[in-house]
Amino acid sequence: MFKFLKFFKNQILLNKRLTAEEELQKAEGYRIKFTQAGNESVITYYEGNREIPIGFEFTLLNDVILNTNSFRRWNGRGKELTPLEYERV
Predict the structure, then answer these.
(1) CA distance 4 to 44
(2) Which residue has better confidence, 47 or 59?
(3) Which domain holds residue 14?
């Protein structure tokens, strides 16, 4: 019963947490969007008018594997990220 109440509380507070995260991203000057189409999962990082699609996948143990080579250039084919930008992303 306690687990159900905890789950219910988390669902109620989810919108509040998502709103707080969106405000933080806006204040920091970036935005993150998650999309999934079939087996392909992508995080798109937006900063100003630039964007980087970052490929990732989940393992059987729910670990996340990021394809770090997928975010070396803005907009996938554009200008290469500086080392500082790469760390920030």
Answers:
(1) 33
(2) 47
(3) 2-88
Nearest in space to 53 (alpha carbons), one of 30, 72, 81, 27 = 72
- Structurally, the chain folds into a number of domains equal to 1
Share of the chain residues as helix, strand and coil, in percent rounded to the nearest 5: 40, 35, 25
Q: How many CA atoms lie within 13 A of 34 on its CB side?
A: 3
Mean pLDDT of 22-40: 87
pLDDT value at position 40? Answer: 73
Instruction: Identify how many contiguous H helices and E strands the chain contains and give both numbers.
Output: 2, 4
Q: How much is the average pLDDT of 75-80?
A: 74
- Predicted confidence at residue 77, as pLDDT, reads 67
